[in-house]
Amino acid sequence: MIRRLLVAPLVAAVLPSLSLAAQRPDSLPLKTTRSVDFTTSEGTWISLDVSPDGQTIVFELLGDLYTMPVTGGEAKHITAGPAFDSQPRYSPDGKTIVFLSDRSGSENVWLCDADGSNPRALTKGDKNLYASPEWTPDGQYVVASKTSMPIGSVYEIWLYHKDGGSGVSLTKDDKGPAPGPPGRGTQNNALGAAFGPDGRYLWYARHRGGFGYNLDLPEWELAIYDRQTGKVFPQTDLYGSAMRPALSPDGTWLVYATRYDAETGLRLRNLSSGDERWLVYPAQRDDQESRFTRDLMPGASFTPDSKALVVSYGGRIWRVAVPSGQAAPIPFTVKVHQDLGPLVRFETRVDTGDVLVKQIRDASPAPDGRRLAFSALDKLYVMDLPSGTPRRLTSDSVHEQVPAWSPDGQWIVYVTWTDQGGYVQKIRADGRAKGQRLTPDPAFYDHPAWSPDGQRVVVIKGPRGPRVAEHFGPGYELDWLPAAGGAPTRITPISGGGRPQFSRDPSRIYLYEANEGLVSVRYDGTDRRVHIKVTGFTPNFAPNPEPFPADEVLIAPDSGRVLATSSNYVYLVTLPLVGATPPAINVADTAAAAFPVHRLTRVGGDFIGWTPDGKTVYWSVGRSFFRYSPALGDSLGKAKARADSIRADSLKQATKEKSDSAGKARVDSLAKLPAYEGERIDVAIRVPRDVPRGSVVLRGARIVSMKGDELIEKGDVVVTDNRIGCVAATCAAPAGARVIEVAGKTIIPGLIDIHAHPWPTWGIHETEVWKYLANLAWGVTTTRDPQTSTTDVLTYADQVETGDLLGPRIYHTGPGVFGAFLEENWTSLDDVRNTLKRYSEFYHTHTIKQYMAGNRKQRQWVIMAAKELGLMPTIEGGLDFKMNQTVQLDGYPGSEHSFPIMPLYNDAVQLAAQSGITYTPTLLVSYGGPWSENYFYERYDIHDNPKIRRFIPHEEIDQRAERRPWFRENQYVFPRIAASAAAVLRAGGNVGMGCHGQLDGLGCHWELWAMAAGGMTPREALRVGTRDGAYGIGMDKDLGSLEPGKLADLIVLDANPLEDIHNTEKIRYVMKNGRLYEGETLNEIWPRQKPLPQMWWWDQEPKNVK
After folding, report:
1. Per residue in 838-885, pLDDT tens?
2. 931 Cβ partners below 8 Å, 6+ apart?
């Protein structure tokens, strides 16, 4: 137990040292420690321009700008450093280059002299992304497409004066072409602005709405914007779309990109006659099926005499004669030097010994504050506060969750759950009697609450069957029942309602419904009132965004305040009486709120509550319980405010003559520290870990150990307990060992899915998780879920470790770290440290998912804080190749999802390989084209597969297999993406297998087969699915290969996957942690003879129906 009273020092910090020399902080805070050096004559997605005198080409490569003679040669750096610079364009006089750069910490439009000197920002801000800047023909203005950060995909074209100003949108009122598919928005999207000799007319590509998946064409059309009238005129109507216009200086020619069959080519239009022909086919694959953050095609340029187009495709730069289309390469050589941040990768050993439970759920103190009730491992516990030993109140095998104390503290009410349904039960708080069932019939129950007089229990009730099948509605209602037990009485139907609550009027029941706010009703469901609507973070990526509703709102016992959670933080919010219209209070900026709001936590909190006297609020994080006194917090907060004021005045006096940025930073940092954070109590529950005992020999199989290129054509594997003891042509059997003959079989390591989403039910937990079973049955012995949405996985993962649930090893990042995307706009490294401490100190995840969490500076703060806290981050790829490359430069050790640009050429391959990142392309949901899962569903009938039906509920099968979209085979891009992944692998890089939860179990075999479709050998694909995955999550010391001392996770196959990778599916046995199971049934055959229990979905099909 740990008990700490957290009170920030006030007086000692009133007068900080203010004599430090002023320092100008770097715009990009991350300090580089490594470098990548290589020479390349290839480039990926090279945007370029030709100087007005026709002598020089400026182009981008890996975030730096280069120039070289128009005839080719060795390129010269004109910008360098950690910033990502891109899409350069010469001014009409050739003296200035406009380009994009994130050197300020966020992407903006910049100008520099033609030699790269004198860089200056044309736009300012930290919440936007830009694309395809271009000069007006008179050289006075720049146009660029702008969208919101971090996931904007709806661009408007803005006009900026070269000498400054905030600019104006040109295309905001363009209604665009007909709306696209539902769910993608209706705002017009505009990219690739281009001019001919007449600056009145601006050409661009447009379409309606943002990005999407599995798209149908056409997507984009060309249009002309008349700068004089503001009118827009469409110019194309092609199935393959039309993108990235380029106009010749003499006004004769238009070149644009369009898709034809499965390739993208360049079309040439004579603007006088309208005649068209192909100029280049195929060219670079376009990016219209992604987020097009670098425009839809790389920038190209006509030569000043209009006789040729200089353009990049196939990794090279070409001079293409106009109109003949004759192409000649312009050879180039780039000596790449990139400075990189430190690789934030940590080795993590698989835990041994007893399981220290990572989460207590729904912890609630007794009315007198002396005891704490909670569930852990879905069992009911009570402990004395603050340092007692937790003890179970029952010995029942059912799940026991959401305990609540009776007003007199004598009883605890809770709900139970099994596949047969659940009940409301109560038990004496001292545990001296068995639990009493209060409800006569099984159903789904959640969040029981005692009425203030202790005579009734109010509870959420729902139907059993749909909940067993993981459905969350409809059919839910708020009920009450006598505290002594009896049939429930319905109060009101609910939809998405939170837990019932009481305040000073005992005749009203409160509950939180996110769409409305905090509401209350009487016991008969009448007199419904809305009391307050609490909102939080406002996303920046949607047109006309609305703030997110709070996650939970609880009214105080005196009705004067509410306790709310938003973006994982806990807030105390004043509840005023303002009339018929309830108050709406936003907590994202507490200083700007309409009424007093206090954020109580820096690291966050779950499972909030009030004590009955209203003097204390509480919450939990992981296995830690917190109590907070609002009165003490108010008092200390006022004292700290006075200290902060004195400190600020001292700084002001000390810096009248000389600024002190370091001193100011310290003052600002201290001002952010809370005066009081309450009392923390850590709860320690240790449970034996499931470890089998005994030795087994698997004799006579072919062994593909994945230890290098080792192949044992006929050999033995010895396992003692849960570790491998011997892998060799002949192994001596330990005394008493069981020998299992597997001659003619092939043994490989268990598969490791490092981008899994086996999400079980949240809240009231499942007693068996079919997703876990399906994965294990298909040989997936380890999963890492990079974004779990909730913290329920903390409990589920522990239950697998204790043997209460059967499944693969469950590793995870916990909920994603969303930052400025969905949660909060960090303003300092300290803000990020506080967020990440939730994961390092409380969730103990060892790894996090940085999910498009802001601009470049904010993403660097994340990796800096992760390094300090020992967390190994991976990132959401986000269909953004620019961001994909910046995270490699910044030292991120993992990248999830495929790079949307294809193919990768030597520059991008070398950076990915040498940066040390683990690239997990998740081919089943390939970016840049139709998902490959559709390919496999078209060719693989899962519906009538007996093994599928054993491990996956029928409705889940129907949802995936009955009706699917269809794509012609040449439309699939996964072989191209896999080919690039193979190139990274062969260049010395690391590639992981991520199956994304599309079809748990079998889907991972599809992922391996998709890797092989891009040219990987079967051994390379197996390496990706085993050894490289283990390395990618830092666990290769224990997992990923068959070697003595490693954990015994393996698959016994009936056929050799080195001959045909499709043989990975032919599974005879699966061993996980030393226990051996039949692949078809998951009946355990070693060391126990234990059949798989009956599953609820096995008897769901119609029977005896006439």
Report:
1. 999 999 999 999 999 999 999 999 999 999 999 999 999 999 999 999
2. 213, 214, 924, 925, 998
CA distance 902 to 284: 8
What is the three-class DSSP state of 888?
helix
Quick one: 36-340 is in which CATH superfamily?
A: TolB, C-terminal domain (2.120.10.30)
The kind and range of the H/E element at 619 are strand 617-621
How many Å apart are CA 639 and CA 559, to the nearest integer?
A: 26
* Total residue length of the chain: 1106
Domain 690-750+1041-1094, classified CATH 2.30.40.10, yes or no: yes
Q: 495 and 474 in contact (C-beta within 8 Å)? A: yes
Two structure tokens written together for 69: 């003679």
pLDDT in tens, 465-515: 888 887 777 789 999 999 999 999 999 999 877 899 999 999 999 999 998
Query: 283: which 2 tokens?
Result: 């060219």
**Domain residue limits, the chain:** 1-31+630-674, 36-340, 356-502+530-629+675-682, 690-750+1041-1094, 818-875, 877-1039
Rounded to 5°, the CA angle 214-993-949 comes to: 70
**Mean pLDDT for the chain?**
93
Q: Which of 180, 131, 174, 179 is nearest to 153 (CA)?
A: 131
DSSP state of 389: P
958 burial class (0-12, 13-18, 19+ CB within 10 angstroms)?
A: exposed
Determine the Cα–Cα distance for residues 152 and 130; give it in Å rounded to an integer: 10
Question: Hey, is 355 helix, strand or coil?
Answer: strand
Question: What is the longest distance spanned by two Cα atoms in the chain?
Answer: 95
As its CATH architecture, domain 356-502+530-629+675-682 has 6 Propeller (2.120)
d(CA 271, CA 1083): 72
Residue of 509, 606, 599 lying closest to 555 (CA atoms)? 509
CB contact set of 459 (below 8 Å; sequence gap of 6+): 415, 424, 445, 446, 447, 448, 449, 478, 479, 480, 481, 488, 500
Three-state SS across 276-288?
Answer: EEEEECCCCCCCC
